[in-house]
Amino acid sequence: MKKYCLYLYLGCLCLILAGCEVRSASPVTATKLVGGLDHPWSMAFLPNEEILITERSGQLRSVQKGKLSAPIQGVPPVFAQGQGGLLGVAAHPNFSENRLIYLAYSGAGQGGASTELVQAQYQEGQLNNLQKLFVSLPKFKTSHHFGGRLLFDQQGYLYLTLGDRGQQDLAQDLSNSIGGVLRFNAEGSVPESNPFKNNPAALPELYTYGHRNVQGIALNPSNGQVWTHEHGPQGGDEINLLKAGANYGWPVITYGEQYGGGPIGQGKTQQAGMEQPLHYWTPSIAPSGMTFYNGDKYSGWNGSLFVGSLKFAKLVRLTLVGGKVAAEESLLENQIGRIRDVQQGPDGYLYLLNDEAQGGLYRLEPS
């Protein structure tokens, strides 16, 4: 009896030490819809059951009725080195009337490369009337931390996420876009309600700042909130709720550390006037892509938040209670490779892109 009680105690202790993460038998399978994609990065759903997909090497593709198109013509040249390339894609909320799409990518020029934003009309395998809406300055010769996610919110504002380009101190400088999340009107102008619109010392497009490298942005359909996630250094990947004008702390505060060990700056995790993450990972999972789920295809998943993990090649499901992360579940671990993007389709299913040289588009289906 004593031995049985000891085993029971140890079993309970192991569950407590394991925290909230669950690694259960997967209730879903990933069905490949198309392959042959070169490091796919982002996707956008169009009204006619068509999906646009960016490839980091610089191609924009279309998938319709299970068929992958030839590269769409008219895409601007990209700086496809390191983490750079063709990144985010989004469709205008009124796409069916105006055929407008948006692309974020790393573009090269005098002084190096930076994140750029363009708008174009998409019609029959071609981009027309291309307009450059924004170029992040200054440019740098580094090839990492471009950010590059795009999102329209419920009011029709367009968000562009950026990274610090390896120049971490600039993320606290309001006069540039480095380490910021930007907000635009759909045609590229600055909304009157942007928090720094009337600050002559600040970039008017800035909505939030103090980010390291934001590679996930999602709209919570239940309340209209915009959430992001960003890569930490060694540890300290974060999920954040965006608040107009807020400072998210990088590099002054972080739950990560230097690669190889050691504190960043003064080693602070909190400071007055800087936002705390809603959730963070240590060790890092290298998050990429994010979506809230509000469909009915998967039992018990309505209201969950989904995040791709590059480092652990898995999909993470986060259970939310009162706007906070209450539990974490790992799915598809080491089954389809590095998950770069996850989005809910108009049909209520979740769709995934895996960041591989022979990458693909997958649909998540109940087992």
From TrEMBL:
Protein name: Glucose/arabinose dehydrogenase, beta-propeller fold
Protein's UniProt keywords contain Signal: yes
Domain of life per record: Bacteria
Organism: Thiothrix eikelboomii
Keyword Oxidoreductase on entry: no
Matches recorded under InterPro entries: 6-blade_b-propeller_TolB-like, Glc/Sorbosone_DH, Quinoprot_gluc/sorb_DH_b-prop
Signal peptide stretch: 1-25
Residues in Glucose/Sorbosone dehydrogenase domain copies: 37-363
Keywords: Signal
